[in-house]
Design a protein that fits this description.
Layout (H helix, E strand, L loop, with lengths): L1 H8 L11 H12 L4 H4 L6 H5 L7 H9 L10 H14 L10 H4 L3 H4 L6
Length: about 120
Amino acid sequence: MVKIFEPVVGYPPFDKFMPKKDELIREWVSMFGDLPEEWRERLPLGRATDMFESEQVTLHDWLHETHFEDDKKQCFSKAEIDTLGTLLQLMMQYRPSDRPKASDLLNYTWFQRKPFTT
């Protein structure tokens, strides 16, 4: 996932220096959806509810914001960034068993693009 994300956005995902566990979990939930129930049960009592109440930016919004910010050269269209967001969400499923196989990902729209043809 990082090998796809970083060249498009310009920095690795979750790049905060020494993030706190709660902040990192909030960021994951914001971008990739709620944690599996059995994971939520492992959070300290009283923290499970308030941890998921704050709204943050979605993965698609964040990709758009970072790729199209300021005077940065834009190599991809908005539709391509949306396709990338969906691909990254598929790859970042919490449970490995829920993630697509690598062979299935190669058939995904993002990899079928022909970026060097006009």
